[in-house]
Amino acid sequence: MIRVDGLTVRQPATGRTLLSGVSFEAGPGESVAIVGESGSGKSLTVRALLGLLPSGLEAGGEVHVAGRRVDDDPRALRRMRGGTVSLLMQDPFTLLNPLRRAGRQIADGLPRGADAAAEVPRLLAEVGLPADVAGRYPFQLSGGMRQRVGLAAALAAAPRVLVADEPTTALDATTQREVLALIRRVQRERDMTFLLITHDLRLAFSMCERVIVMYAGRVMEMAGAAELRREQRHPYTRALLAAEPPADRRLAVIPSVPGSVPAHDAVAGGCGFADRCAYATPECRAGVPELRAEPGSGRLSACVRAAGLPAAPPPPPGVTAPARPAAEPVLTVRDLRKTYPGGARPALGGVGLTVAPGEIVAVVGESGSGKTTLARCVTGLERPDSGSITLGGLDCSDYAAMDRRAVRLARRTAQMIFQDPYSTLNPARTVGATLKEALAADGRPQDVGALLELVGLDPALARLRPANLSGGQRQRVAIARAVAGEPALLVCDEPVSALDVSVQAQILTLLAGLRERLSMGMLFITHDLAVVRQLADRLYVLRAGECVESGAVDAVLDAPAHPYTRELLASVPDGTGGWPH
Amino acid sequence: MNGWARFALRRLAGTAAVVLLLSIGVFGLLYLAPGSVQQTLLGTRPATPATIAAIQARYHLNDPVAVQYLRWLGGVLRGDLGTSIRTGAAVSGMLGERLPLTLALTGYGTLLAALAGIPLGVLGALRRGRATDRLVVTAGVVGLSAPPFAVGLLLLVVFALGLGWFPVYGTGEGLADQVWHLTLPAAALAVGAVGLLVRFTRAALVRELEQDYVVFARARGLRAPLVLRYALRNSLVPVLTAAGLIVTGTLAGTVLVEVTFALPGLGSLLVDSVTFKDVPVVQALALLLTLLVAAVNLLVDVGYSLVDPRVRLGGAA
């Protein structure tokens, strides 16, 4: 159905090449996953395939769709979009026209002469939505419902190939599982060729028959999902799989890969992964390794040592979390309540928790659970309706009623790091200026270099502005800014959910180290139970503003008592063909 | 519909409050004018004890200022805007005579600006980065930076005196003739507005064309005109904002253009009244302009709610 041969994407204005030498096929009814971190070129590959590259980019190489060469014939490709090949995009909050009712958007994609009054309800039913959704605007629907409407719209012209670009990354864990199960059911029922773009190897194993692993704009490895799950013939695939922490056991060390994904051109002369690879030899940097078939098995690897790689180490065993001596809590929250104006139900309906010095307490929940409201109340960014917050012995229930000195003291006690590393730093200031300010605010000597080293960054970065840093580096700077005054409590609101897995592991390791060195308490807000398992001592599970379960991490995750906790655990992809169901 | 009615009522109340607040400032003009209030109200008449007493009695100048304001406001609400110091005629009548011309000029100018500016902006966005786009953007900047009276003079010299296609001054008789007479002044007003509209339209459409929903619409094979309609509909809010600015800007621009083309509208009346320190007329004009600007803003708000269901249904995100 789809054949891509030697695909290249370039940016003529800057002379940069973003990906090259990408070749693969997908047969009728076959499901293929393209896996990679940001910058791997996985999204550009499918955009190029569909003729939908952002302006300023240019594709080369051959693309055949349904037996027809389309790379040199944009008109033919345009006619094929919708009816032959269709795309489902990542963000349900932006992929629908905000000003058009859902039903009309679906109807817009129907083939000419189709009866919208009959077809739209049928498509909505196929994606598990009631017919009255047709009359609603996107903003009146939840994220999961919007993504289902998106799927219905993508299916309207009955495509034979469905491409899904990270279709559930922006959704909650439980919703993600439902939507993925839906996509797989629809794909099988319609017998479509399916191309899934994802950053999550385990998700790829569960959803697809074949997996292509990309890195820095090249294909690294290609194999059947089951084979690849059993054995990886490229060190990058191994590293990617290892960096995704398991939810079922705690590891002594989270395996992380040093460095970050390089630009395609920066590694044009050799293997893209060589600089981060433990098995690298001089041969790896001598030239770009070819994607070679392994004799007899049909799987492909671009590692020069593919045949001679030592066997992958067995999955590391779990350890029990070290016990922490009981101590006077640095943060005590009692019966916190908050209802937003116009909110149908309270965002927080009486939540209480404690954090001791050196303890990492996770607050787990999905969007709407109140976990972010809790973090914002603790740091004084939001004013609770009632309840008490005690920070280091200081009553911080109402920041507005505190005098200036008390507020300063509270701010020095509790600091916060945010989810999005791209908007958390002032883009106009250098890293050094930002950190100097944080140190001065606490009356500390302005030793920016030492602070950068504390978070594992080169002191030379102080001269740069955030735009010149990678996402992981920015998050490290944000952490440095937060710990500059050695606060007793660090509130982390989803600090790794916007980062690539290999970088996520680095940041988690950094946070675990900082907790020991500064004996900081941490309130760790997250939706990811695997992260909780690796990092936290205790957890609270929040649902719709209520705490449904709490306790020591190992106890709760090994034997969840509340059905909602069990549902959350079941939403973590396990890499088997049985998931998601 | 209930949500919409509530929305409209809220906006209406807000507008009324703003107008009321500004009316205090407008009334205060009397006291802000240089010289004493009696002198101002006397104008060029001799200041004898008799005339001063007459003025004091007529304007109740011995009452507290708040009472004077309320009395003035009561008069305004009944349609009594006072009498002109310069002509002795009722101010409301003077305004009534001149308002239609200014409204016609503003409407005509805005229409010309919209007819030229929006299509050019769309063209620029669709041909982004190419020669057409650069030409459109440059023309927009030139238009924006040209003052309307200077454009007016240029148009007069070229099209009225040089080519003789349009009359030099006057308002004309009958609809067709009036339109013909108003074309050059309206064009002079529209030139700057076109520049603004081109920029707003182009920027809004360029941004919308890069949105995910446009890529998604193309990816599932929607035809190009339909995709463009998606994007255009979504660029309407900033374009409406620009349109509101243009109507009010054009209204202010009539002051100079009416003088340039010797048109008997509110603008030329304002210039004359300021020159003669005819405070009651200036007050009435200021109040009328306030009311017009507030009405335009109200219309723009209502326009938003028609364009974007999120505004009227109160949804976020």
Automatic annotation (TrEMBL), chain A:
GO CC terms of this entry: plasma membrane
Residue ranges of domain ABC transporter in the record: 2-241, 331-569
Entry-linked InterPro entries: AAA+_ATPase, ABC_Ni/Peptide_Import, ABC_transporter-like_ATP-bd, ABC_transporter-like_CS, Oligopep_ABC_C, P-loop_NTPase
Membrane topology field: Peripheral membrane protein
Keyword Cell membrane: yes
Signal peptide positions on this chain: none
One Gene Ontology term of the molecular function aspect: ATP hydrolysis activity
Keywords (A to Z) from UniProt: ATP-binding, Cell membrane, Membrane, Nucleotide-binding, Transport
Gene Ontology biological process terms, A to Z: peptide transport
Localization annotation: Cell membrane
Protein family according to the UniProt entry: Belongs to the ABC transporter superfamily.
Annotated NCBIfam families: oligo_HPY, PRK11308.1
Entry protein name: Peptide/nickel transport system ATP-binding protein
Source organism of the structure: Nonomuraea pusilla
From TrEMBL, chain B:
Keywords, sorted A to Z: Cell membrane, Membrane, Transmembrane, Transmembrane helix, Transport
SUPFAM superfamilies named in the record: MetI-like
Domain ABC transmembrane type-1 stretches: 99-300
Membrane topology listed for this record: Multi-pass membrane protein
One of the record's GO molecular function terms: dipeptide transmembrane transporter activity
Locations listed in the record: Cell membrane
Main subcellular location of this protein, as a coarse class: membrane
Gene Ontology, cellular component aspect: plasma membrane
Spans through the membrane: 12-33, 101-123, 135-166, 178-198, 236-261, 281-300
Keyword flag Membrane: yes
Family: Belongs to the binding-protein-dependent transport system permease family.
Protein name per the record: Peptide/nickel transport system permease protein
Provenance organism: Nonomuraea pusilla
Organism placement in taxonomy: Bacteria, Bacillati, Actinomycetota, Actinomycetes, Streptosporangiales
